[in-house]
Write the structure tokens for this entry.
Amino acid sequence: MKMEVSDKVAVPQKRPHIKKGFYHARLVEVKPKKTESKYGKKIVLLFEILNDAFKQNGKYLQLATEAYYEYKQDDGSYRTAVTPNSRITQIFQALGWKFTTQGLDTNDFIGAEAEVLVDDYEYEYTDPNTNKTEILKASTINDVNKWEDQPEVVEEVVE
Amino acid sequence: MDSKSFLTILKYIEDSKLPREVISKLRSKCVDISGELLPSTTDRNIKRNIKLINELEELFKSVAEKHNTDFPDIFCFFKGYKDSVIIHESIEEDSRVPAAMIESLQIRCKTNSVIKISEKFNYQQIKVITRRIFDAHPNSPLVFPITKYHHIEGKVIGEIEQRKIKIPVAWKVEISTKEDKTYVPYLFGEKIPKRTKIVDEVSGEFYLYRFLSKERKEYALISTDRLKLDDYSIDGISIEVEDFKIIGDAYRLINKFTVFFVHTAKSHICQLQNHKQLFEHADKLKLTGNRLYQYLSSYRKNGSIQVLEHPKWFLKLTSAFLFHKKKGDTAEYPMHILWISERGAGKTTFMESLHQKSGETQEIIAGSASTIKYLIPSFKETNRPDMGALAKASRLCIIDEFFRILRTSHKEREDESGRMNDLLEHKDRQAGSGQGKVRTSMTARLFAGTNPIAGTNNIVNLVEKFDDSFLSRFLIYYQTDDHVKLVHQKKKEAKVYTTEWIEVNDFLSIQDYLQSFDAKYNRERLVKIFDKFLIFFNEEVKGIYEARYLHHLECLIDGIIKTRCLITRDPSFKAKEEDYQEAEYIWAIIIKGWFRQNLDDILRDLSIPIESRARFLPENAVYLLEKLASLGYKAKLGDLRDKCRGELHAPSIAFYLSLLKEGAFVIERDGYLYHHEWEAIERK
């Protein structure tokens, strides 16, 4: 059987890094984190940074943040993390949710805009060509706040 | 106002017996002001002129007071200008046509003909074209051009004739005088003088329809192509003809009726062409699920937007109702909703809010003041049948107090309701009586709300009162207690307002596009959901459920998938597991509502499998079961009470626990409470 061959190999990628600060962003995806964290289960919220300066191949730069959605209890069961003062609640309230006991559907906030605080973190990067390891900085979202649109321009009425 | 005509007032000053110097002063002031007056062509100019006239009027008043005299004619002149309001002006249309256009048409049209011109020529210009072609050729051809001068959007509400008919549109008229004979062409809409002789005419073969525009203006539509009874965006030329309205026993009022010659007709006003455009449009509107549901439940009044809170599942049902594509084997028809609840449960306000987003010119139909004849075609006037409100609506027809329409003729209620059946299935049908006939079809989906009058407060009684075939065409929703409770609770709380709104046309373009294609789903999976509920029904109820409820369930899942894909920008429009779960959840709530009165009997009926009955458990009972499960499916009463204390009071715990015990959802044994799944869990 004749098979196709490709010389492409998986190359460790440098993680995106932009200047620290507040950026206008849009939520594009919410998915559960595959591995469980220290205090329970987390979701990953993926945001697009709506800044043309960071666009690559016509696509906005994407950065993520995480939040607990279920805390592990002593007896091994889980309880919801969506309580009035939790981080997940604050994130979704920033995206337009009003706290209600009717439940929270993360799908309802895809496309919602927010102001995100981008901060740095450090990670080890091994260059595949030189095999040299170095400490690099990458960006992460540290906080999510409400995005306030520009006030509408109202045409002045001339008598 | 030109200064010359204004200065006519000077003659009234000359007639007065005032000293010369006073007259001279008034004259010069009048002349000064007349120089400043502007032509009365715009509101702004008129305002300015009135200001100047007021100034002059003050002067005249002071002179009149000082010299003890009066200027009645002058004050009358001022009053006439200031107090009159022009409500309609007949502005003459431009009649110039480029010579080159006429020359080319003269070459093209050498015999009597009806032609289409893709230019925006008005009626006056059409007349010029016809006359110039008529005069240029020795055989005087009659030409009737159809241009694209007017644009209308709306719905073809009925077909006046089943086939093409010949309609004369231009005439060659002989005008004889003693000396000679002249020939003049007359066009459709022009009045041919009496004592003239028609010597030639040109006719076209046309289809004839009735059209209702978005501005609620009715047209007689004349088209060379066959049109569907659907929404259209049409270019053509409208011509007014004389008509009569009978306003008394013998008096007829002359009025103008508009006839519209179609140049081009574009079916359905759908702006979006593909998924990519849909998502771009949604991004532009910053449309999220949260925003969509808030929009569906908000009501705009005097500039402020109030959010009317309803359960989330209900808003999902509403969006599915608006977005699903019609389904069916031969004729495709949508899921209509019939919402039944007691007064004050939020029906009317919700329907009003829905109406604001429908783009319908037709108002909400008040069932308490209407008869069924208002909904379906009726034939009171000869040759002018009324199409009925159901057919007139384009996308959404909303009826409040629906059962009151059917109750008006109490004895024949069954037959009455059945008269809507064909329309509700969106079938293209001909209706007629001795007075006339008309082909008509409904394109809108019906959202009806009603009180459960005449003992129809549960599904069993409802099926006894009304025709099965009529009822099966609706997804019947008996408002659940939880829903009613939420509405009542929100009424007591402070009103919630928002600033977010989506313009109707923006929303309708999304709605129209989503209604234009099928989402992909597994039908077998739906049949399973459908079958799960059959166990609860008696023979009568089973009848309506089996007749059309699978169709409604398909419509529901189609709408649920589209809503999710729209808000998550998923271009697959293919069902996911969560869509089936959502559909089953909503379906269970709707069916649960049918048994509001005898729900407890169902819960206690041990002959029905426990998994089926579990769907109908009240929220608090489900909460108790969940807590019992979290305690290891087995707990002492005191432990369970402690666990639930934060959410439920002791009497509530006792009440729901007794219900769970009677239904064998919880078994009490040896001082322990066992969850019905305890044994299965233990075995694992």
